[in-house]
Write a structure and sequence with these properties.
Strand content: 15-25%
CATH architecture: 3-Layer(aba) Sandwich
Distance between the termini: 39 Å
CATH topology: Rossmann fold
Number of strands: 13
Strand order of the largest sheet: 4-1-5-6-13-12-11-8-9
Number of domains: 1
Radius of gyration: 19 Å
CATH superfamily: Class I glutamine amidotransferase (GATase) domain
Number of helices: 9
């Protein structure tokens, strides 16, 4: 299985170089129990549908390894997953805190920090938004139902399919997100019980749910980062042209810093 995984990464990397399409790294989940890395194909298909080449990034063991990986890709998706370890934002664990993954938190933070240092385009999704906010000095509500001041809150942990929107978000017109989507209101899915509380310096809130929960932040112009609380990849995987725009934007932002490569001069063998 490991050999197959790395073969897939190598093939995708070679194809990406030949096609001159941007390579989009996708952080993967990590399971200590069976020492494995995984990610839903919703992310992979969304990148492909947007014109990028997906490259799965397993757990980085240190900051140097993370930097070496990020140096090879043109953009980064921080994917969804467990709760963020509260010590990273100076809090004790609340009673309703879910499972955390310290090793993955470290790995994702190293990937994000390396991407920022190299000016690479970043898209954070769900946990990816939360980890982005924490990495740059923000905090989180560890559990919306018990901590959010404007209770009751909407159902942010939907029990229906991710391909179905569950609530609306209101988008700020003066935002990159609005430039992408062209709408002041979006119908989104929702699979979280944590959310941004104090927004990190140099970031701004660009979308909120009707109950006031922060649904999107962005770091432009200082940071090349857009981060969303919902999961647009479910819709983009299905070929929804409106939601593919989120990933097309990532691909376009990634192209800006991608070096131009000449097509390899490969002589085709003559068929006799």
């Amino acid at each position: 299985m490991k050999r197959m995984f790395w073969s897939m990464v190598l093939v995708m990397t070679c194809i990406g170089a030949m096609a001159q399409k941007p390579l989009i790294g996708i952080s993967t989940g990590y399971s200590a129990s069976d020492n494995s890395a995984s990610v839903r194909f919703t992310y992979v298909d969304a990148v492909v549908n947007a014109g990028g080449i997906p490259v799965l990034i397993p757990l980085a063991k240190d900051s140097l390894a993370a930097a070496e990986v990020i140096n090879k890709v043109d953009g980064l998706i921080l994917s969804g997953g467990e709760d963020v370890y509260p010590f990273f934002y100076g809090e004790e664990p609340a009673g309703a805190l879910g499972g955390v993954n310290y090793e993955r938190d470290l790995s994702d933070r190293w990937l994000l920090q390396s991407a920022v240092k190299m000016g690479k385009a970043v898209l954070g999704i769900c946990r990816g938004e939360q980890l982005t906010n924490v990495t740059f000095g923000g905090t989180l509500y560890q559990d919306l139902p018990s901590q959010f001041p404007n209770r009751p809150v909407l159902q942010h942990g939907q029990r229906s399919s991710g391909t179905l929107p569950i609530h609306h978000v209101n988008v700020e017109k003066d935002s990159h997100l609005y430039e992408i989507m062209g709408q002041e209101q979006l119908a989104v899915n929702s699979f979280h019980h944590q959310a941004v509380k104090d927004v990190a310096p140099d970031f701004k809130v660009v979308a909120t749910a009707p109950d006031g929960v922060v649904e999107a932040i962005e770091g432009f112009p200082k940071y090349n980062i857009l981060a969303l609380q919902w999961h647009p990849e479910y819709f983009a995987q299905q070929g929804n042209k409106q939601w593919i725009k989120i990933f097309e934007d990532l691909v376009q932002r990634a192209v800006v810093n991608k070096p131009v490569l000449n097509e390899p001069n490969i002589k085709q063998p003559k068929i006799r």
